[in-house]
Sequence to fold (173 residues):
Amino acid sequence: MYHAGFMSNPILIDPLKFAREARQLSGKLLVSSLDGRVQADLASSGGELEYTLLGFRDELHRLSLRLTLSVALELRCQRCLETLSYPLRTDAVITLFTQQEKLEQACELDEDLDAILAEPELDVKALIEDEIIMGLPLAPKHDVCANEALALAKADKPNPFAVLAALKKSKTE
Ligand SMILES: [Zn+2]
Fold:
């Protein structure tokens, strides 16, 4: 397996050749190197992502790519507007076609199919950016926002007057 290391430039492959030769590529990218479409949804662009790309033939012998990626993104909570750490893992199979007609036919038969027309050069980084954008929630929210958690913690504390009253009660009994 070839490790690309940190890259901010396009990561170009010949997708058909990559799939035909069952190649593998894995590497890391700084979140800050992702393009503006991704940055627009982030509260901060710290951190890095790891990706793996595998070339293979699917059960219908179609040349395909499998892209897995793992990243912890810093999003903005849409309820309290504080930072929200959002772990994102995606695992996508992209089926390659050389003819637009065949691609359209295949997509009609299988509406879940993720298909692209194979150009001589494919930018893996753009593929990664597309996957992230598709994997992001439309309105990210904390399960429990910090201000709510604080309010809950206060409510959970026993009221000191109630404790006192209970003590007095138990003495008189
Ligand atoms: Zn929140």
Notes: The helical segments are 15-20, 36-39, 100-109, 124-135, 146-156, 160-172.
